[in-house]
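Severity: low
Component: inverse-folding endpoint
Summary: output formatting inconsistent between runs
Steps to reproduce: submit the following structure tokens with default settings.
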């Protein structure tokens, strides 16, 4: 196992642990530099995708004539089995 300081495509720097042959580690580091996102940026992008999908689903439900959900967001998510 080797630790590397990686400068991600988003411009942030993090330390990563990489395993495997040197050639594979170098390939992974290059991918991080050209396409990878640091942890906070990756989580922010995922949240944006979830919010967009949720909005699209709400609009589709409204177009189909479903009643809006009631209650807090937390209660709606737990009743659907989403943690």
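Observed output (run 2 of 3):
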């Amino acid at each position: 196992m080797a630790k590397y300081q990686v400068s991600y495509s988003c411009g942030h720097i993090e330390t990563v642990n990489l395993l495997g042959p040197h050639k594979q580690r170098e390939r992974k580091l290059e991918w991080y530099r050209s396409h990878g996102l640091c942890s906070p940026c990756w989580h922010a992008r995922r949240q944006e995708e979830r919010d967009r999908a949720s909005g699209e689903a709400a609009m589709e439900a409204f177009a189909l004539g479903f009643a809006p959900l009631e209650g807090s967001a937390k209660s709606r998510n737990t009743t659907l089995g989403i943690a």
